[in-house]
Amino acid sequence: MTQVLELQFETATGKTATIAIDAPKPRVTAAEIQKVMQTIITKNVFGGQAGALVAISGARIVDRQVTEFKLEVE
Q1: Which of 51, 55, 60, 62 sits CB 3.0–4.6 Å from 11 for a disulfide?
Q2: What is the rounded distance in angstroms from the CA atom of residue 49 to the CA atom of residue 20?
Q3: pLDDT score at 16
Q4: Could you give the CA distance from residue 22 to residue 15 in angstroms, rounded to a whole number?
Q5: Residue 13 φ/ψ region, left for φ over 0, alpha for ψ in the -120 to 50 degree band, beta for the rest
Q6: Per-residue pLDDT, 66
Q7: How far apart (Å, rounded) are the C-alpha atoms in residues 33 and 6?
Q8: Per residue in 58-74, is it b (16+ CB within 10 Å) or e — as a string?
Q9: Beta strands in the chain (DSSP E)
Q10: Helices in 1-74 by DSSP H: which ranges?
Q11: How many whole angstroms separate alpha carbon 34 and alpha carbon 17?
């Protein structure tokens, strides 16, 4: 099972921007996530076409299970 931590922010243009972090540390806490997200906003670390990140919108861990099939390729 693969996990991704998604940090969701509101942008200056009113859109939502998501930063995905692969393989977050086990037992990460909401307080740790919020602190990092606030630092990203305060230091204006990321920007893009949607504008600066201005507010925390949410965060979630997404579990993904991938099943690969072995196929014979000619």
Answers
A1: 51
A2: 17
A3: 93
A4: 23
A5: alpha
A6: 85
A7: 10
A8: ebeeeeeeeeeeeeeee
A9: 2-11, 16-22, 53-64
A10: 30-42
A11: 15
Phi and psi for 69 in degrees, rounded to 5? -110, 135
Strand duo 53-64 + 2-11: pairing: antiparallel
Contacts of 24 (CB under 8 A, 6+ apart): 3, 4, 5, 61
Query: The sheet that has 2-11: what strands, in order across it?
Result: 16-22, 2-11, 53-64
What local confidence, expressed as pLDDT, does residue 46 receive? 84
Q: What is the pLDDT of residue 3?
A: 94
**Distance separating alpha carbons of residues 8 and 53, to the nearest angstrom:** 9
Q: For the chain, which residues score pLDDT lower than 70? A: none
